[in-house]
Fold:
Amino acid sequence: MLAIGSALADPQLVVAIAARHRFGRHGEFYPGLRAPVSQAIAMPLVEPLLDRMRETFCLAARPRFFECYLSVVTHPATALAPIQRLPHFDGVEPERLAVLLYLDREERAGTAFYRQRATGYESVDAERFESYRSSLEAEIERHGLPEAGYISGDTAVFAQTHAQPGTFNSMIVYRGNTLHCADLRPDFVPESAPETGRLTLNLFLR
Structure:
């Protein structure tokens, strides 16, 4: 994982731009609202880091744009679907990178990373997918679905391996097939306005 502090010269400008975007639901997994961001806007934010990413993650070429969103968490813990109460991964391709820029001045949430206890997996590629899925189904059958709420710390099925603080204007880069989830403060109250909510920029490269 790469962690970069003071990532942008003017992060408040990005927050102001976010406030002018039209947010909506994008897929069934993200517990909130998203607004697409174009390649022309997103890539200049990470251009100085691309060679470093290639070296750090042992990529054959500089990573390229895949998709990008501004994201605001809006679901209260009681409204989460079962799949949203578990760590997730963004795809099985090991070359897929996730870039996460924290833009919440209140710093209400970072990102936590997990290991599946039954398999020892901290990431899921194509070869591991079926064993990960079958183990998860067996463990849920054994322990039951987690109670409504965002995962926090260790559980019977997953062990937390690292928790990255969501420091305003900091950025992390990690492989998209790594098991992870938002790490929300216990007193987290969702807000839908990007200026006041838990706002992040989520850029995916490959």
